[in-house]
Every structure is written in C-alpha cells, then in structure tokens.
Amino acid sequence: MDDSGYSTKEDKIRNLSPLPRRRRLMSMENTSLTEVITVYEKLKKGRENRVYRQSNFIDSSPRMDSDFKEAEETIPIVPTFFHVQGESKLHVLDFNKYNKGFRSSKYLYFSEKANLLQADFIENLSPDFSQLLKEKNYWLNIFDPNEQDFYILFNSYGVHDLTINDIREGNTEEKMEAYKHYTFFSLRLENFQGGERKENVDVDFNILLFKDFIITIHDKNWPSITDILGFVNLLSAHSTVLTPDWVLFSCFIEMNQDAKYVLDSIEPEITKIRVGSKSIEMSDIMRRNFEMELRLYSISRFIKPKMRILRQLKVKCSKRVSKVVLRLLGDILEEFREQSHDLNHFNHILERSQDTFLAIVTSDQSREANEMSLVMKRISEIALIFLPIQSIGSFFGMNVTVPVNNL
Predict the structure, then answer these.
(1) pTM
(2) According to the model, what pLDDT value does residue 160 have?
(3) Cys-Cys link to 183, which of 209, 218, 237, 321 (CB 3.0-4.6 A)?
C-alpha cells in the first residue's frame, strides 16, 4: 500500500504503468477556490440565476446604466487598493455551461482532457473507449446500471463482488467501505422539490473512489448531476487539477446545499404556523404541524447518515483524500451538524407549539363547559321557582274530591 492509501493492484488490473501524482498547486488560501465555493453556495440558495458575473458596476438594465452614468460625474476618482495579477476585471462563473448540451444519457464521462462526453452505450463514448477508461483524473457516471456494467466493474476495475451486489440490490444502508484499491460509498438521496419530499423518488447513489478516477452509479435520475458537473468544471478551470477527491467533495457539497435549501424553505412556514395560530382552525394547525414534523424527519434521515460517513472517512481513509479536500469535507460535516441542530430546534418548536395548541383546545372546551354549566344553573333556578307553583296548580286542578272543597 502506498502513501495515498491505495495498493498498486489497481494499476495491474487496468494494465497501466503507475505515473507520479501531480502536485496540487493550491491551498485553503487560494482565492479562486474560495470564490468558486462561495458563489456556488449563494447560487444554490437562489436556485434561479445560475450565472454569476462580477460586474464592477456594470448592469444590463437601461435604468442601472443611466444611474451609473449620472453617478460617474459626481463620484471623485478613487485609487485602486488591490490588484490581482493575471485576472481580468470582468470575472464570469458560469455554472450552467453544460445545461444546454446536457441530456440524460446512460454514460457521462468528464475530464480536463476530454471535457464532457455522453452516450447511451459505453463504446460510443469514444472510438477508443477502452483507452479512454485507462486515462487518469476522470469522472465516469453510470445511470441505471445493467449486467454489462457490473461485468466491466468486476473485470476491468476489480470491484469486489460484495460491492457489486450492494449496487445491484439497492436499498442498502448508507455506509462507507474501504477496500484495497478503492473506497465504496453507498448513499441514499431524496428528491426535494419546493422544499417538499416527493414520494417514490429516492435515489440509490453509489460512489467508487479510486486513486486516479471516480465512478458514480445511480438507479434513478438525479437532477443535481448537472450542478455537480458545472461545479467540477469551474474547480478544474479556476482552481486545481481535477483529481477524484474533488468530485467526491462536489457530490457532498451538493447534498449539503440541497438540505440547506429545504431547511431555509421550511423555517418561514414554521414561523407562519406560530404567528397565525389565532386565525386558523386548530384542526388545520394540528394537521400542518404533523406534516411539518414528517418533513423534518425526512431531512434528518437524509443528513445523519452523511454525517456518520464523513466522520468515518476522516478516521479510516484520510490518506486516500488530499488534505485540502479533507479539510473542506470537514467544513461540510460542520454544516451538517448545524443543520441537525436546526432540525432539533424546529422539532422543539413544533412540539411546544403542539402542546400549546392542545392546551388552547382544552381551555376552549373547558370554557364552553363552564358556560353550559352556567346556563343549566340558571334554568335550574327558574325551574325551582315555577315548580312549586306548577305542583300546587296541578293539585287543585284535578277532577277528584279534595277535603277542603266542603269548607
């Protein structure tokens, strides 16, 4: 086993001569990397405009153009306080570069050298697809795998039969398993649309992380593949060499942003339930409260296994991931922890609000019972007054002999 945590069996299986690993020319202080990650998180939060342009007070709207032209006449000349050598003033980060040409193909191949290749048959990726798969630093995505794909994984890549059985069967627990020349990640993804979980759309997402390449396999369509593709492209274009661990980081940050988006959409609804409790029927509130708890549970079920896998990755397979990526994955783990804390906080709010709603219902029922008792008391008092009179009148009105009639 070498310093990267992998054995050289991978090279023997693929009949490749080992090449020296390229040195990563970056660090956490790399401004391009931090900018790409920061802008990506902002764009994922908005989910609409996926092209970021550092405009330097340049806007396409006529109103903004006229406003800045008028401002230019009054703004004094200010010196430039910083200058980044080699960077243009107009910096464009386009996360939708491949959206127009992207189609839901069975096979997706991406690398810095070959760029994006798509095909419904693996042999159609390239005239010499076998040589293409012997390259280094590429990402191969397989959608809805069949037995031919399992055969290639077993014979060409040396994937263990236990891993293949887990991928074939699906619905396995989320886990990370370290083998001699690769690491297997079994993940479950949930398709959240509009902040709500869609039924019967859970995706079995499997990752095979090798030393020089990465393979992702999923049984259902996952729309976020295009977002991962755009993010990976920007990482390779602006920051670093596209090694497999960066694709792994891109997958986890995509999952983290999906969970964050859903939580951000749920928080206003929870606040709305608390504030609007007086104007909504209690039965509707209780129903919405229960539905909200189910949604929070589904998010918690999505987050917690990823946290456990990231902890295992840091402990068991730290040598198979670069220090920079490992540190960034640690940041994602911290964000997952914050999201888990927010989930617990939201659950606490819903539980307290539900107790409050039940107390309000009980109080209303008690007040109605008291009012009914007061009405019955008044009826009883009236009956107490008229009952003796009615009894005397009924007694003297009977057609029978009464002793006092002879007087």
Answers:
(1) 0.72
(2) 93
(3) 209
